[in-house]
Amino acid sequence: CIYFGQAWKGIHQSNATSGQSDGPLHARDFTDMYDASCLNGWTMGNIATTPSDLVRFYHATFAAGTVISADSLAQMQNWEDLTDGFDTNVPYGLGLFRQKIKLPLKGKSCNGFDSVCKCLVILGIGGCIFEAETLSHAGLDYGSGFPILGFLPALNLSFALGSNSGEMTIGMNFTLGTLENSKMPNSLECPLLAAAVQAQLPGFPEFSCSSSF
Questions:
Q1: pTM of the entire structure?
Q2: Residue ranges of the domains in the chain?
Q3: Cross-referenced InterPro entries, in alphabetical order (predicted)?
């Protein structure tokens, strides 16, 4: 996959390390992307794909077991907590993260789906959350990527969100400030999983994607 042309580089990108956003300013100049290749990336697998093909690949890997051997998959899940860099204390195997997803639900009952739903209700006060372990390794490249991606063993369910915006996807739709762009994929995690889980489990409690913990 070779990328030709140029990508926007705005003043908001130059301030990315400050942790502050300049707001939705227009781009000031270009970053030359000519001959930029995914082969130049850091620890990349160099695979360009679509969301539908990626969830099929995840299902074939983790559920069907048709991509690699069971022994190889077991070695990938030999977890050790990361102690340096990003995502410290997150279990990491061979190219694979193990993380927990927690999302708020409406109502005060799990409707019988206790394996991925937890409720704490005392005297009518409280609520429920969706809680499940995910196996994943997101991927990003120039202008696009899959910031939300994974396999839920408890539901035998794979999910993927392709995006051409976000904190690390340089170019394409990088027209907002750094913080605004980084929030965009994260804001879609709940709606994406809500649609996938409720399609897999009819009768599962409704997600409350406008809520936060």
A1: 0.73
A2: 49-200
A3: Beta-lactam/transpept-like
